[in-house]
Amino acid sequence: MVCPLIQQQGRCGLLGRSSRLPVVPVNLHPSFRPCQLSSRCLSRAQFFKREQQLRLIPCASAVTAPELELEKGGPGSTYADGAVAKVPVERIRNFSIIAHIDHGKSTLADQLLLKTGTVAARDMVEQFMDSNEIERERGITIKLNTARMKYRSRRDGELYALNLIDTPGHVDFTYEVSRSLAACEGALLVVDASQGVEAQTLANVWLALENDLEVIPVLNKIDLPGADPERVIREIEDIIGLDCSNILRVSAKMGIGIEETLEAIVERVPAPQNTTGDALRALIFDSYYDPYRGVVCQFKVMDGKVSRGDVVQMMNTGKEYQLDEIGVLAPHKVQVDTLYCGEVGYLAAQIKSVQDARVGDTVTQKKQPAQTPLPGYQDIQPMVYCGLFPTDTDDYQDLREALEKLQLNDAALKFEPEVNNAMGFGFRCGFLGLLHMEIVQERLEREYNLDLITTAPTVVYRCKTTDGQEFLVNSPADLPDASRREWISEPYVRLEMVTPTDYVGNLMELANGRRGEFVEMRYLTDSRTTLVFNIPLAEVVTDYFDQLKSRSKGYASMEYKITGYRENDLVKLEVKINGEPADPLSVICHRDNAYRTGRQLTSKLKELIPRQMFRVPIQACIGTKVVASEAIAPYRKDVLAKCYGGDISRKKKLLQKQAEGKKRMKALGKVEVPQEAFMAILKIDREAKEE
């Protein structure tokens, strides 16, 4: 017997992704028996039987036909109903979700996708928009992601297109947040009802206000036993200055307040300006490399419209391409014929070079080009540098290509070639922080199957030589000799720590131990305090965040901003292994900390470097002066085992012969330094500060 759903719709609407037509109200026939082709309908039909007595009635936010003008998805469409709602510009809402890390952004995004029917319940997984394996493993968002949703408002009954951009919450990925906010007109500010306002909450709010966005405060996790909504509302009003009279009270985990959140987005987020008649200008806010289609760009149409088959021009590079495919992410790719101003989508045009479609570039049409490009994004300066070297020198070119493709997806990554005597050819890479560095290294190893050696991270110093030249130093190996240096300056940051008052003493001790200068202490509320310090960036980028969480039992948070450079009594601490300089292990540190750092570093290297057949001295030097030294004892054969008494001269002769062999071996032998040794500076910093 043929399934009556297939008879009426041509394909079973309950099959979700395999559907080609929207779900319409259908009365099931009394003799309905699911056919073999629709075996998955059975559990769905049973569900509707319990809820709606075998009558499929769409919810308030579902899309029904034929009331709406719909544009069919392309051949590769995997959208739930195979169609994208085309609505006027006045009914488009572009918004982002911003918050401190672990305040529930991804969970709220999941609930919005479920409530609007964008993703079927059976397809939903936690952190649905965090598609990267590393994001799921660590439970954090490291990349912005977009999704287009359809929602019918209860207020006016009209259909709206909602473009959601999910953003990271960690301080190292602030650049991702700023890029996503430039493509929005509004933002949901999510605040944990138990944690309250934290450092990255403030930083993201200022970014949103700088972009002139409508900020909607959302109080999340109201169902937790430790939630204190009234206290957190007072914090938002007093610290941020937002009006919380109509704040949204939500529990994303339990699905409470999701409908009210969607209504608030429709009512309070402004629609984009209607400039459909102007020349095309589209802002590229993200991109990635597809091995089959080349560079795929995500963009927002600021002015005009763009259609499949158009010949477009990148205004910064001047390159021209014909659009093979355009579409929207809903959240999977859905091909469409045309995108109008205010809409967010993607394009593929067989762009082979990763340099031809950079983030921040403006796309316009060749036949009717725009006169001026969009402002784009400010070029960001890396905070931390480290060396990346392939363990196999044959992988150098593969590493270069991998970095270029990754840079397309992560615009904050900078790199340049570097040659090292100990490790050969590699790259000097710049990052926004230690977490950013770890994520990039892990992505290179997983996604591109590379085996890498990473040197200890350093910040960018400034140096002036005796002949009056000033230049930047991002590696200790580039620092000139002390006889040619006039001064060295290091970057300072303004560090703000938001903490419960119980941990103020612990955090002040931590900052003072890292050469921090106290600026001020502000009481945000009766139980929360902000500590402000001026502190060298080199002291922050190693393990400061870990120590902050440890000393505050996880309750404190931090935010920092570069304030400038200062001259300090800095020296280059050079490490020699078996008399040979090991440049990757050299560090620039303050003279007062040089002896302690040298002792800790040589001691740690003694544990990490394997024993050899000859004695291996490890020395930490400032210029020609040795400030700390350790030695790894050699493996030694017992050459006296065959001597049963006899004259002592016989034993001396055997020992002398052995010593001469060890000496020749030491002159010719090379010490293999393991990967763990290059990260020893991080371990000794942590141990030295904890003592």
Automatic annotation (TrEMBL):
Subcellular locations according to the entry: Plastid, Chloroplast
**InterPro entries given in the database record:** EF-4 (IPR006297), EFG_III/V (IPR035647), EFG_V-like (IPR000640), EFTu-like_2 (IPR004161), G_TR_CS (IPR031157), GUFP (IPR027518), LepA_C_sf (IPR038363), LepA_CTD (IPR013842)
Tr-type G domain mapped to chain residues: 90-273
Spell out the HAMAP family in the cross-references.
GUFP, LepA
Kindly provide the name given to this protein in its UniProt entry. Translation factor GUF1 homolog, chloroplastic
What job does this protein perform?
Answer: Promotes chloroplast protein synthesis. May act as a fidelity factor of the translation reaction, by catalyzing a one-codon backward translocation of tRNAs on improperly translocated ribosomes.
Question: Which keywords describe this protein according to UniProt?
Answer: Chloroplast, GTP-binding, Hydrolase, Nucleotide-binding, Plastid, Protein biosynthesis
Q: Name the family the entry cites.
A: Belongs to the TRAFAC class translation factor GTPase superfamily. Classic translation factor GTPase family. LepA subfamily.
Asked if the Swiss-Prot or TrEMBL record annotates the protein with the keyword Secreted, the reply is no
Q: EC number(s) in its UniProt entry?
A: 3.6.5.n1
Q: Which reaction does it catalyse?
A: GTP + H2O = GDP + phosphate + H(+)
- Binding-site positions, GTP: 99-106, 166-170, 220-223
